[in-house]
Amino acid sequence: MPCYRCGARQVDPARGHSPWRRGVKGDEQVLVCPGCQASADWTADLDKCRQCGSVHLVRRLGEVECRDCRMTVAPDTSLAAESVGPSAVRAPGLSEEVALALERVLGRGAAR
């Protein structure tokens, strides 16, 4: 999954803590790269918990959970009504990247 702000992709992480941060925007899980975290107020457009206002949210199995107060929200009652806006960079999906790489390496179209 690329950084939702700049489109950069994670590389194989070193052992230990990852410098990338998770968040939720428009009821979708997003990642933020270390470069974008350096910008002023990089959390401003992330969804916030209705109970405590935290941006430490994680989306799993269709639910959004606050990592600070543990409030869980079902998918039909999302934390934010707005979706990822046009300012976000949409990088090609991983499956498309793999298909293009296979085509380059094998010199033919990838099996479908």
Overview of the structural elements:
The protein is an alpha+beta fold. It has one domain (21-106). Helix content is 15%, strand content 18%. The chain contains 2 helices and 5 strands, in the order E-E-H-E-E-E-H. It has helices at residues 34-37, 94-106, and strands spanning 21-25, 28-32, 57-60, 63-66, 72-73. The strands form 2 sheets. The protein has a 3-stranded antiparallel β-sheet, with no helix packed on it. The protein has a two-stranded antiparallel ribbon with strand order 1-2. The longest helix has 13 residues, at 94-106. The chain is globular and about 55 Å long. The model is unreliable at 77-90 (pLDDT under 50).
On the 0 to 100 scale, the average pLDDT is 78
Q: What is the domain tally?
A: 1
Strand content of the residues, in percent?
15-25%
* Count of distinct strands: 5
Count helical runs: 2
Question: What is the spatial order of strands in the main beta sheet?
Answer: 3-4-5
Show unreliable segments: 77-90
Q: What is the CA–CA distance across the termini?
A: 22 Å
Main beta sheet strand tally, sense and closure? 3 strands, antiparallel
SS-based class: alpha+beta
Shape: globular
